[in-house]
TrEMBL record:
GO function terms (MF aspect): syntaxin binding
Pfam families hit by this protein: Synaphin
TM spans (from-to): none
One GO CC term, this protein: terminal bouton
Protein name: Complexin-1
Record InterPro entries: Synaphin
Subunit structure: Binds to the SNARE core complex containing SNAP25, VAMP2 and STX1A.
UniProt-annotated stretches for the region Disordered: 13-116
Native species: Camelus dromedarius
Principal location: cytoplasm
Compositionally biased intervals (Basic and acidic residues): 17-83
Family assignment from sequence similarity: Belongs to the complexin/synaphin family.
Length: 136
């Protein structure tokens, strides 16, 4: 109890606050609810102003971006994706299967040569003494 008294002497207002923390009677502020409501309203208003500010800045940036796109003939990502999708649909229109992938020339055209069996190919890569065993 001695330490608590010394604290109270150093900070005279501390005893009232300590009493509140310990569950003592708080002084009820009749306007507390009204003040809290005003504070919440002010926060909402600041948030709306901030959003409006950033929306305006983004609109200005988008206008500048569009100017650059027009100047250099660049399309937006969404436009490119939409055109690619439309091209895919046009290619596969009337077809029930997926679009065929292009096969490079020379792939699968000539008949496969099977004059050697797989066993002969394997034997070719074995060491000398083992090759002799299989050839007999």
């Amino acid at each position: 109890a001695g330490a608590w008294l010394t604290g109270a002497l150093l900070c005279p207002g501390a005893t009232k606050d300590m009493g509140k923390m310990l569950g003592g009677d708080e002084e009820k502020d009749p306007d507390a609810a009204k003040k809290e409501e005003e504070r919440q309203e002010a926060l909402r208003q600041e948030e709306e102003e901030r959003k409006a500010k950033y929306a305006k800045m983004e609109a200005e940036r988008e206008a500048m971006r569009q100017g650059i796109r027009d100047k250099y003939g660049i399309k937006k990502k969404e436009e490119r994706e939409a055109e690619a999708q439309a091209a895919m649909e046009a290619n596969s229109e009337g077809s029930l299967t997926r679009p065929k992938k292009a096969i490079p020339p020379g792939c699968g055209d000539e008949p496969e040569e099977e004059d050697e069996s797989i066993l002969d190919t394997v034997i070719k890569y074995l060491p000398g003494p083992l090759q002799d065993m299989f050839k007999k």
